[in-house]
Amino acid sequence: xxxxxxxxxxxxxxxxxxxxxxxxxxxxxxxxxxxxxxxxxxxxxxxxxxxxxxxxxxxxxxxxxxxxxxxxxxxxxxxxxxxxxxxxxxxxxxxxxxxxxxxxxxxxxxxxxxxxxxxxxxxxxxxxxxxxxxxxxxxxxxxxxxxxxxxxxxxxxxxxxxxxxxxxxxxxxxxxxxxxxxxxxxxxxxxxxxxxxxxxxxxxxxxxxxxxxxxxxxxxxxxxxxxxxxxxxxxxxxxxxxxxxxxxxxxxxxxxxxxxxxxxxxxxxxxxxxxxxxxxxxxxxxxxxxxxxxxxxxxxxxxxxxxxxxxxxxxxxxxxxxxxxxxxxxxxxxxxxxxxxxxxxxxxxxxxxxxxxxxxxxxxxxxxxxxxxxxxxxx
Length: 379
Hints:
Layout: H1 13-20, H2 23-51, H3 57-77, H4 81-105, E1 107-109, E2 112-118, E3 121-123, H5 125-146, H6 152-169, H7 173-189, H8 194-214, H9 216-226, H10 234-246, H11 270-302, H12 307-331, H13 349-366
Antiparallel strand pairs: 1-2, 2-3
Helix pairs in contact: 2-3, 2-11, 3-13, 4-5, 4-6, 5-6, 5-7, 5-12, 5-13, 6-7, 7-8, 7-12, 8-9, 10-11, 11-12, 12-13
Protein backbone atom coordinates (compact mmCIF):
# COMPACT_ATOMS: atom_id res chain seq x y z
CA UNK A 1 0.00 0.00 0.00
CA UNK A 2 1.30 3.43 -0.91
CA UNK A 3 1.29 6.09 1.82
CA UNK A 4 1.76 9.80 1.39
CA UNK A 5 4.24 11.26 3.84
CA UNK A 6 6.51 14.28 3.86
CA UNK A 7 9.97 14.36 5.35
CA UNK A 8 11.61 17.54 6.61
CA UNK A 9 13.90 17.74 3.58
CA UNK A 10 10.98 17.76 1.13
CA UNK A 11 11.29 21.07 -0.76
CA UNK A 12 8.09 20.73 -2.77
CA UNK A 13 5.41 23.40 -2.29
CA UNK A 14 3.12 20.99 -0.45
CA UNK A 15 6.00 19.57 1.58
CA UNK A 16 7.07 23.01 2.77
CA UNK A 17 3.43 23.81 3.55
CA UNK A 18 3.02 20.66 5.63
CA UNK A 19 6.00 21.43 7.86
CA UNK A 20 5.22 25.12 8.32
CA UNK A 21 1.42 25.26 8.66
CA UNK A 22 -0.20 24.98 12.10
CA UNK A 23 -1.33 21.36 11.94
CA UNK A 24 -3.24 21.57 15.22
CA UNK A 25 -5.36 24.37 13.75
CA UNK A 26 -5.92 22.21 10.64
CA UNK A 27 -7.11 19.32 12.84
CA UNK A 28 -9.47 21.62 14.77
CA UNK A 29 -10.89 23.05 11.52
CA UNK A 30 -11.41 19.52 10.19
CA UNK A 31 -13.37 18.65 13.34
CA UNK A 32 -15.42 21.83 12.96
CA UNK A 33 -16.26 21.13 9.32
CA UNK A 34 -17.18 17.52 10.13
CA UNK A 35 -19.49 18.64 12.94
CA UNK A 36 -21.00 21.16 10.54
CA UNK A 37 -21.88 18.42 8.05
CA UNK A 38 -23.41 16.28 10.82
CA UNK A 39 -25.52 19.19 12.06
CA UNK A 40 -26.59 20.15 8.52
CA UNK A 41 -27.70 16.55 8.04
CA UNK A 42 -29.61 16.75 11.32
CA UNK A 43 -31.22 20.17 10.82
CA UNK A 44 -31.87 20.65 7.11
CA UNK A 45 -34.14 17.73 6.01
CA UNK A 46 -37.04 19.06 8.11
CA UNK A 47 -36.56 22.54 6.61
CA UNK A 48 -36.38 21.07 3.08
CA UNK A 49 -39.59 19.09 3.56
CA UNK A 50 -41.35 22.17 4.93
CA UNK A 51 -40.59 24.19 1.79
CA UNK A 52 -41.35 21.29 -0.56
CA UNK A 53 -37.92 20.23 -1.85
CA UNK A 54 -35.97 16.98 -1.60
CA UNK A 55 -35.09 16.17 2.05
CA UNK A 56 -31.35 16.17 1.31
CA UNK A 57 -31.44 19.28 -0.89
CA UNK A 58 -29.50 21.45 1.57
CA UNK A 59 -27.08 18.64 2.47
CA UNK A 60 -26.08 18.15 -1.16
CA UNK A 61 -25.73 21.87 -1.70
CA UNK A 62 -23.61 22.24 1.42
CA UNK A 63 -21.25 19.50 0.21
CA UNK A 64 -21.15 21.18 -3.20
CA UNK A 65 -20.10 24.44 -1.50
CA UNK A 66 -17.70 22.69 0.85
CA UNK A 67 -15.55 21.03 -1.82
CA UNK A 68 -14.42 24.27 -3.57
CA UNK A 69 -14.20 26.01 -0.19
CA UNK A 70 -11.69 23.49 1.14
CA UNK A 71 -9.78 23.64 -2.14
CA UNK A 72 -9.65 27.44 -2.02
CA UNK A 73 -8.59 27.43 1.64
CA UNK A 74 -5.74 25.03 0.87
CA UNK A 75 -4.52 26.94 -2.20
CA UNK A 76 -4.61 30.30 -0.37
CA UNK A 77 -2.81 28.83 2.64
CA UNK A 78 0.12 28.01 0.32
CA UNK A 79 0.71 31.73 -0.31
CA UNK A 80 3.35 33.94 1.25
CA UNK A 81 2.37 37.22 2.98
CA UNK A 82 3.00 39.35 -0.13
CA UNK A 83 0.70 37.13 -2.18
CA UNK A 84 -1.93 37.27 0.57
CA UNK A 85 -1.75 41.07 0.55
CA UNK A 86 -2.17 41.28 -3.23
CA UNK A 87 -5.06 38.81 -3.19
CA UNK A 88 -6.80 40.75 -0.41
CA UNK A 89 -6.40 44.07 -2.26
CA UNK A 90 -7.96 42.60 -5.40
CA UNK A 91 -10.73 40.91 -3.42
CA UNK A 92 -11.48 44.13 -1.51
CA UNK A 93 -11.91 46.17 -4.70
CA UNK A 94 -14.12 43.52 -6.33
CA UNK A 95 -16.22 42.78 -3.23
CA UNK A 96 -16.68 46.49 -2.43
CA UNK A 97 -17.89 47.10 -5.98
CA UNK A 98 -20.25 44.12 -5.66
CA UNK A 99 -21.42 45.46 -2.30
CA UNK A 100 -22.27 48.79 -3.93
CA UNK A 101 -24.01 46.95 -6.78
CA UNK A 102 -26.48 45.39 -4.32
CA UNK A 103 -27.98 48.86 -3.82
CA UNK A 104 -28.87 48.98 -7.53
CA UNK A 105 -29.43 45.42 -8.74
CA UNK A 106 -29.70 43.50 -5.47
CA UNK A 107 -32.87 41.60 -4.63
CA UNK A 108 -34.80 43.12 -1.73
CA UNK A 109 -35.38 40.55 1.01
CA UNK A 110 -37.05 41.56 4.28
CA UNK A 111 -36.42 45.21 3.52
CA UNK A 112 -32.69 44.88 2.79
CA UNK A 113 -30.65 44.58 -0.40
CA UNK A 114 -27.76 42.27 0.47
CA UNK A 115 -27.67 39.72 -2.35
CA UNK A 116 -26.81 39.83 -6.04
CA UNK A 117 -27.36 37.09 -8.59
CA UNK A 118 -24.40 35.37 -10.25
CA UNK A 119 -25.84 32.96 -12.77
CA UNK A 120 -28.12 30.59 -10.87
CA UNK A 121 -26.50 31.49 -7.53
CA UNK A 122 -27.03 34.33 -5.08
CA UNK A 123 -23.94 35.90 -3.52
CA UNK A 124 -23.72 38.06 -0.40
CA UNK A 125 -20.76 40.41 -1.04
CA UNK A 126 -20.55 41.55 2.59
CA UNK A 127 -19.27 38.09 3.54
CA UNK A 128 -16.25 38.54 1.26
CA UNK A 129 -15.59 42.18 2.03
CA UNK A 130 -14.98 41.41 5.73
CA UNK A 131 -11.75 39.36 5.45
CA UNK A 132 -10.53 41.39 2.47
CA UNK A 133 -11.00 44.69 4.32
CA UNK A 134 -9.23 43.53 7.46
CA UNK A 135 -6.14 42.35 5.53
CA UNK A 136 -6.01 45.56 3.47
CA UNK A 137 -6.38 47.60 6.66
CA UNK A 138 -3.60 45.56 8.30
CA UNK A 139 -1.32 46.32 5.36
CA UNK A 140 -2.08 50.07 5.52
CA UNK A 141 -1.44 50.21 9.25
CA UNK A 142 1.80 48.25 8.83
CA UNK A 143 2.98 50.68 6.14
CA UNK A 144 2.22 53.52 8.53
CA UNK A 145 4.61 51.93 11.03
CA UNK A 146 7.32 51.17 8.46
CA UNK A 147 7.13 54.59 6.83
CA UNK A 148 6.12 57.30 9.35
CA UNK A 149 5.09 59.73 6.59
CA UNK A 150 2.67 57.25 4.99
CA UNK A 151 -1.00 58.06 5.84
CA UNK A 152 -1.87 54.44 6.58
CA UNK A 153 -4.21 55.28 9.43
CA UNK A 154 -6.16 57.77 7.32
CA UNK A 155 -6.42 55.34 4.40
CA UNK A 156 -7.51 52.54 6.71
CA UNK A 157 -10.20 54.84 8.10
CA UNK A 158 -11.30 55.75 4.56
CA UNK A 159 -11.59 52.06 3.61
CA UNK A 160 -13.62 51.43 6.78
CA UNK A 161 -15.98 54.34 6.12
CA UNK A 162 -16.50 53.29 2.50
CA UNK A 163 -17.38 49.77 3.60
CA UNK A 164 -19.73 50.58 6.47
CA UNK A 165 -21.45 53.38 4.54
CA UNK A 166 -22.62 50.88 1.91
CA UNK A 167 -23.57 48.34 4.59
CA UNK A 168 -25.73 50.91 6.36
CA UNK A 169 -27.44 51.81 3.08
CA UNK A 170 -28.46 48.16 2.47
CA UNK A 171 -29.12 48.27 5.54
CA UNK A 172 -27.03 45.66 7.39
CA UNK A 173 -26.31 46.92 10.88
CA UNK A 174 -25.10 43.55 12.18
CA UNK A 175 -22.26 43.28 9.67
CA UNK A 176 -21.41 46.92 10.39
CA UNK A 177 -21.03 46.13 14.09
CA UNK A 178 -18.87 43.08 13.33
CA UNK A 179 -16.55 44.97 10.95
CA UNK A 180 -16.30 47.83 13.44
CA UNK A 181 -15.32 45.43 16.24
CA UNK A 182 -12.75 43.69 14.01
CA UNK A 183 -11.25 47.02 13.01
CA UNK A 184 -11.21 48.19 16.62
CA UNK A 185 -9.23 45.12 17.69
CA UNK A 186 -6.81 45.76 14.84
CA UNK A 187 -6.32 49.42 15.77
CA UNK A 188 -5.66 48.45 19.38
CA UNK A 189 -3.02 45.90 18.38
CA UNK A 190 -1.50 48.42 15.95
CA UNK A 191 -0.81 50.69 18.91
CA UNK A 192 -2.82 53.73 17.88
CA UNK A 193 -2.84 56.40 20.62
CA UNK A 194 -5.42 55.57 23.28
CA UNK A 195 -7.16 58.90 22.74
CA UNK A 196 -7.79 57.93 19.12
CA UNK A 197 -9.17 54.54 20.16
CA UNK A 198 -11.43 56.20 22.75
CA UNK A 199 -12.70 58.76 20.24
CA UNK A 200 -13.46 56.01 17.73
CA UNK A 201 -15.18 54.02 20.49
CA UNK A 202 -17.31 57.05 21.35
CA UNK A 203 -18.24 57.48 17.69
CA UNK A 204 -19.25 53.81 17.63
CA UNK A 205 -21.51 54.26 20.66
CA UNK A 206 -23.10 57.32 19.05
CA UNK A 207 -23.60 55.22 15.92
CA UNK A 208 -25.45 52.54 17.89
CA UNK A 209 -27.78 55.13 19.41
CA UNK A 210 -28.25 56.70 15.99
CA UNK A 211 -29.17 53.35 14.47
CA UNK A 212 -31.64 52.74 17.29
CA UNK A 213 -33.48 55.98 16.58
CA UNK A 214 -33.16 55.97 12.78
CA UNK A 215 -33.54 52.30 11.83
CA UNK A 216 -36.86 50.78 12.97
CA UNK A 217 -35.74 47.16 12.60
CA UNK A 218 -32.69 47.80 14.81
CA UNK A 219 -34.87 49.48 17.43
CA UNK A 220 -37.31 46.56 17.29
CA UNK A 221 -34.57 43.98 17.86
CA UNK A 222 -33.03 45.87 20.77
CA UNK A 223 -36.45 46.48 22.34
CA UNK A 224 -37.35 42.80 22.07
CA UNK A 225 -34.00 41.84 23.58
CA UNK A 226 -34.40 44.19 26.55
CA UNK A 227 -38.10 43.46 26.96
CA UNK A 228 -39.27 40.12 25.50
CA UNK A 229 -42.89 41.28 25.74
CA UNK A 230 -42.20 44.22 23.40
CA UNK A 231 -42.63 42.10 20.27
CA UNK A 232 -42.40 38.72 18.58
CA UNK A 233 -39.47 36.60 19.85
CA UNK A 234 -40.67 33.36 18.28
CA UNK A 235 -37.32 32.06 17.02
CA UNK A 236 -35.43 33.02 20.19
CA UNK A 237 -38.10 31.44 22.42
CA UNK A 238 -38.03 28.21 20.42
CA UNK A 239 -34.22 28.14 20.51
CA UNK A 240 -34.20 28.49 24.30
CA UNK A 241 -36.79 25.73 24.57
CA UNK A 242 -34.55 23.54 22.41
CA UNK A 243 -31.58 23.99 24.77
CA UNK A 244 -33.75 23.16 27.79
CA UNK A 245 -35.26 20.15 26.03
CA UNK A 246 -31.84 18.79 25.07
CA UNK A 247 -30.40 18.94 28.58
CA UNK A 248 -26.95 17.53 29.15
CA UNK A 249 -26.83 14.72 26.58
CA UNK A 250 -29.55 15.69 24.10
CA UNK A 251 -32.65 13.92 22.85
CA UNK A 252 -30.67 11.99 20.26
CA UNK A 253 -29.87 12.41 16.55
CA UNK A 254 -33.03 13.08 14.57
CA UNK A 255 -35.22 13.37 17.66
CA UNK A 256 -35.30 17.16 17.88
CA UNK A 257 -38.47 19.14 17.21
CA UNK A 258 -37.20 22.72 16.94
CA UNK A 259 -35.91 22.16 13.39
CA UNK A 260 -39.48 21.40 12.28
CA UNK A 261 -40.80 24.83 13.27
CA UNK A 262 -37.79 27.20 13.05
CA UNK A 263 -37.39 28.79 9.58
CA UNK A 264 -33.64 29.31 10.11
CA UNK A 265 -32.88 26.03 11.89
CA UNK A 266 -30.21 25.07 9.35
CA UNK A 267 -28.56 28.51 9.26
CA UNK A 268 -28.69 31.08 12.06
CA UNK A 269 -30.16 28.71 14.67
CA UNK A 270 -28.25 25.51 13.97
CA UNK A 271 -26.57 25.87 17.38
CA UNK A 272 -30.02 25.39 18.97
CA UNK A 273 -30.49 22.18 16.94
CA UNK A 274 -27.15 20.96 18.28
CA UNK A 275 -28.29 21.75 21.82
CA UNK A 276 -31.57 19.86 21.48
CA UNK A 277 -30.33 16.75 19.68
CA UNK A 278 -26.80 16.39 21.08
CA UNK A 279 -27.06 18.28 24.36
CA UNK A 280 -24.97 20.72 26.31
CA UNK A 281 -21.90 18.47 26.01
CA UNK A 282 -21.87 18.83 22.22
CA UNK A 283 -22.42 22.60 22.49
CA UNK A 284 -19.51 22.90 24.92
CA UNK A 285 -17.37 20.82 22.55
CA UNK A 286 -18.20 23.26 19.73
CA UNK A 287 -17.33 26.22 21.95
CA UNK A 288 -14.05 24.53 22.93
CA UNK A 289 -13.05 23.98 19.28
CA UNK A 290 -13.78 27.60 18.39
CA UNK A 291 -11.86 28.79 21.45
CA UNK A 292 -8.91 26.53 20.65
CA UNK A 293 -8.63 27.85 17.09
CA UNK A 294 -8.92 31.48 18.22
CA UNK A 295 -6.47 31.21 21.11
CA UNK A 296 -3.90 29.14 19.21
CA UNK A 297 -3.82 31.39 16.16
CA UNK A 298 -3.97 34.55 18.26
CA UNK A 299 -0.98 33.35 20.28
CA UNK A 300 0.85 32.71 17.02
CA UNK A 301 0.04 36.19 15.73
CA UNK A 302 1.21 37.89 18.93
CA UNK A 303 4.62 36.23 18.52
CA UNK A 304 4.99 37.71 15.03
CA UNK A 305 7.64 40.31 14.21
CA UNK A 306 6.19 41.36 10.84
CA UNK A 307 3.64 44.14 11.54
CA UNK A 308 1.53 43.32 8.47
CA UNK A 309 1.17 39.68 9.51
CA UNK A 310 0.44 40.74 13.10
CA UNK A 311 -2.28 43.27 12.23
CA UNK A 312 -3.92 41.34 9.42
CA UNK A 313 -3.77 38.00 11.24
CA UNK A 314 -5.15 39.41 14.49
CA UNK A 315 -8.04 41.00 12.61
CA UNK A 316 -8.87 37.72 10.86
CA UNK A 317 -8.80 35.86 14.19
CA UNK A 318 -11.11 38.53 15.63
CA UNK A 319 -13.55 38.07 12.75
CA UNK A 320 -13.68 34.29 13.18
CA UNK A 321 -14.09 34.44 16.95
CA UNK A 322 -16.55 37.35 17.07
CA UNK A 323 -18.79 35.86 14.39
CA UNK A 324 -19.01 32.59 16.32
CA UNK A 325 -19.66 34.47 19.56
CA UNK A 326 -22.44 36.57 18.00
CA UNK A 327 -24.21 33.55 16.52
CA UNK A 328 -24.05 31.56 19.79
CA UNK A 329 -24.98 34.64 21.81
CA UNK A 330 -28.12 35.22 19.73
CA UNK A 331 -29.12 31.55 20.09
CA UNK A 332 -28.71 31.78 23.87
CA UNK A 333 -30.44 35.20 24.01
CA UNK A 334 -27.47 37.01 25.53
CA UNK A 335 -27.29 39.28 22.44
CA UNK A 336 -30.01 40.95 20.34
CA UNK A 337 -31.23 38.94 17.35
CA UNK A 338 -28.94 39.14 14.31
CA UNK A 339 -28.81 36.93 11.26
CA UNK A 340 -25.21 35.71 11.29
CA UNK A 341 -23.90 32.26 10.45
CA UNK A 342 -21.88 30.01 12.75
CA UNK A 343 -18.51 29.60 10.96
CA UNK A 344 -18.21 26.30 9.05
CA UNK A 345 -21.34 24.99 10.81
CA UNK A 346 -24.31 26.88 9.35
CA UNK A 347 -25.62 26.18 5.87
CA UNK A 348 -24.75 28.85 3.30
CA UNK A 349 -22.63 29.09 0.16
CA UNK A 350 -21.46 32.70 0.44
CA UNK A 351 -20.64 32.26 4.11
CA UNK A 352 -18.74 29.01 3.57
CA UNK A 353 -16.68 30.31 0.63
CA UNK A 354 -15.91 33.62 2.37
CA UNK A 355 -14.90 31.90 5.61
CA UNK A 356 -12.63 29.56 3.65
CA UNK A 357 -11.12 32.61 1.93
CA UNK A 358 -10.43 34.30 5.26
CA UNK A 359 -9.18 31.17 7.02
CA UNK A 360 -6.92 30.35 4.07
CA UNK A 361 -5.29 33.78 4.43
CA UNK A 362 -5.02 33.29 8.19
CA UNK A 363 -3.36 29.88 7.80
CA UNK A 364 -0.97 31.39 5.25
CA UNK A 365 -0.05 34.26 7.57
CA UNK A 366 0.38 31.97 10.59
CA UNK A 367 2.80 29.62 8.83
CA UNK A 368 6.30 29.50 10.27
CA UNK A 369 8.80 31.53 8.25
CA UNK A 370 12.53 31.76 8.91
CA UNK A 371 13.34 34.85 10.96
CA UNK A 372 9.76 35.58 11.99
CA UNK A 373 8.17 34.83 15.35
CA UNK A 374 9.39 32.75 18.23
CA UNK A 375 8.04 29.36 17.22
CA UNK A 376 10.08 26.60 15.73
CA UNK A 377 8.57 24.19 13.22
CA UNK A 378 5.10 23.08 14.38
CA UNK A 379 5.02 19.66 15.93
